[in-house]
């Protein structure tokens, strides 16, 4: 006889219902989500006489009640897009699904201010809802659909601004900077210390400018080893407002055969690597479940030096342009070369280097002229966060001496090599955190200008305090995150002892990434006495 199993008390007791609890969102304040939660949502509430409570959602209830979730995850028609977020996504107010007369704030990727749209809410957060754009019922005056050049625009997460005239894109980017200083440097506004933000400087190339792309692939659970996985870029939700070709098993990664913001040789590299993945799949040779593939343009004067991505026949893809030879490198550790204003810069393929070569001469000219270097060449330069030496080396002929500091040992090694490659002898580089330069520096402060070009998170307070103590005559702050730049500039001018002696002379954007929401900010500070 089989043994009878008597349930224990715990087993026979009432089944515990697992309750979901929403995670508290605590984004980095200068990240796009931080800006949305701390500034853009409160701003919309203020403009529409709403309190934050009036637009908040009972997230824990929604997570634990499937009927309620159906009520929240719904299709909403006739929604007007009010403005862009700093991330290039539309922001709108929706009627609240539970509270009569109440509102919800919706984030609508690909929605443009002035559009009236139908959308689907697919995710509820405490503060707002995430949505997919289903159709545009009335187009914004700014929307020019015939400008869209990519068949994947409207689902791919890479570009936001393709249907917008280029001049208008520049104006949106200027507005992002205006808002960044309003949100992160409010005291400068009150003290009357904010100059008017200048007109964003255009990129010479509007497409075909990106010297680096990083498509990825991810084997989906539905795919057998012999099917090539999608190879491309992430999708932004599941919008259906535009017919975008999707493969049978759309995953997080969209299948994209070409990216028209890439340079010609990088686009060729993308085709080659896709074909390689196809043939590896056919042979069951895909080793990794997923990977990101580096595609980086390499430019050489000497054809014999070129190495890079090969086509299906195993032939090196090579492009001859302006007496130079371009290839697309896929090896993260390969050494690549770029030329800017005739100077050569070598660096490791997966280390930082600016991604839009066409705009660099304009940026360097602007930075150089705002360093206000003495024509006699008697000035000194500090290049903080110097990477492989782009700014130091570009300014070398106009200064007596420069000192660069950089945390990446690889980049420092290449900065030193680039000095030799360009026959320069007045640039020195040290490896370490930016503040390390103050242990070493002996430049006369009245003859020294400083370039800052930190990563997205900006500078830290320790560094900014020491910079103020060092007391250089001018500071040119280049930044890929205008929010952290605004925060740092305000801190420097108002919280450091000697920062109060400086004026914020100008703020301007450079369009390193046309068709996207990104903008590079350059702020110039000069010492009054
Ligand atoms: C935006 S890149 C600028 C590089 C260079 N100015 C250029 O244009 O090529 C920022 C650089 O800061 C470096 N970095 C990050 N944190 C740092 C720190 N705490 N101190 C010094 N360098 C840092 C990164 O390695 C990166 O090379």
Automatic annotation (TrEMBL):
Transmembrane segments: none annotated. Pfam families: tRNA_U5-meth_tr. Residues 69-135 form the TRAM domain. Residues 15-24 have a biased composition (Basic residues). Gene3D superfamilies: Nucleic acid-binding proteins, Vaccinia Virus protein VP39. SUPFAM superfamilies: S-adenosyl-L-methionine-dependent methyltransferases (SSF53335). Keywords: Methyltransferase, S-adenosyl-L-methionine, Transferase. GO terms for biological process: methylation; RNA modification; tRNA processing. S-adenosyl-L-methionine binds at residues 354, 385, 406, 453. Residues 1-32 are annotated as: Disordered. The active site is at 480, 480 (nucleophile). One of its GO terms (molecular function) is tRNA (uracil(54)-C5)-methyltransferase activity, S-adenosyl methionine-dependent. Belongs to the class I-like SAM-binding methyltransferase superfamily. RNA M5U methyltransferase family. This is TRAM domain-containing protein. It comes from Ogataea philodendri. The lineage of its organism: Eukaryota, Fungi, Dikarya, Ascomycota, Saccharomycotina.
């Amino acid at each position: 006889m089989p043994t009878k199993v008597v349930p224990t008390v715990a087993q026979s007791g009432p089944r515990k219902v697992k309750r979901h609890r929403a995670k508290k969102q605590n984004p980095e304040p200068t990240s796009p989500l931080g800006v949305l939660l701390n500034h853009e949502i409160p701003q919309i509430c203020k403009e529409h006489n709403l309190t934050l409570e009036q637009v908040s959602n009972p997230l824990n209830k929604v997570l634990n009640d499937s009927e309620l979730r159906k009520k929240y995850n719904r299709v909403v028609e006739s929604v007007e897009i009010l403005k862009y977020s700093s991330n290039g996504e539309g922001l709108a107010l929706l009627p609240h699904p539970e509270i009569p007369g109440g509102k919800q704030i919706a984030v609508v990727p690909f929605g443009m201010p002035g559009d009236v749209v139908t959308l689907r809410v697919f995710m509820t957060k405490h503060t707002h809802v995430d949505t997919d754009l289903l159709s545009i019922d009335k187009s914004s005056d700014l929307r020019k659909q015939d400008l869209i050049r990519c068949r994947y625009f409207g689902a791919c997460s890479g570009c936001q601004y393709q249907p917008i005239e280029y001049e208008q894109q520049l104006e949106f980017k200027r507005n992002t900077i205006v808002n960044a200083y309003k949100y992160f440097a409010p005291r400068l506004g009150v003290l009357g210390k904010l100059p008017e933000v200048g007109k964003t400087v255009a990129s010479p190339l509007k497409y075909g400018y990106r010297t680096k792309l990083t498509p990825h692939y991810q084997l989906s659970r539905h795919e057998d080893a012999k099917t090539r996985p999608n190879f491309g870029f992430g999708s932004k939700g599941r919008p259906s407002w535009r017919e975008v070709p999707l493969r049978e098993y759309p995953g997080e990664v969209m299948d994209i055969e070409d990216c028209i913001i890439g340079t010609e040789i990088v686009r060729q590299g993308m085709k080659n690597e896709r074909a390689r993945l196809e043939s590896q799949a056919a042979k069951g040779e895909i080793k990794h479940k997923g990977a990101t593939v580096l595609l980086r343009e390499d430019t050489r004067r000497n054809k014999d030096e070129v190495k890079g991505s090969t086509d299906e026949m195993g032939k090196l893809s090579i492009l001859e342009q302006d007496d130079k030879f371009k290839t697309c490198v896929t090896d993260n550790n390969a050494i690549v070369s770029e030329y800017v204003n005739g100077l050569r810069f070598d660096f490791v393929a997966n280390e930082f280097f600016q991604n839009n070569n066409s705009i660099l001469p304009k940026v360097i000219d602007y930075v150089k002229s705002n360093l206000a270097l003495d024509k006699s060449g008697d000035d000194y330069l500090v290049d903080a966060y110097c990477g492989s030496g782009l700014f130091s080396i570009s300014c070398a002929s106009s200064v007596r001496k420069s000192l660069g500091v950089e945390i990446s040992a690889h980049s420092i090694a290449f900065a030193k090599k680039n000095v030799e490659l360009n026959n320069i002898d007045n640039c020195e580089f040290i490896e370490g955190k930016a503040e390390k330069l103050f242990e070493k520096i002996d430049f006369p402060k009245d003859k020294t200008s400083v370039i800052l070009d930190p990563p997205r998170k900006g500078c830290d307070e320790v560094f900014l305090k020491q910079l103020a103590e060092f007391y250089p005559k001018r500071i040119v702050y280049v930044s890929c995150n205008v929010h952290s730049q605004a925060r740092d500039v305000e801190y420097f001018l108002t919280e450091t002892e000697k920062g109060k002696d400086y004026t914020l002379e100008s703020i301007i954007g450079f369009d390193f990434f046309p068709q996207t929401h990104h903008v590079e900010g350059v702020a110039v500070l000069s010492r009054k006495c």
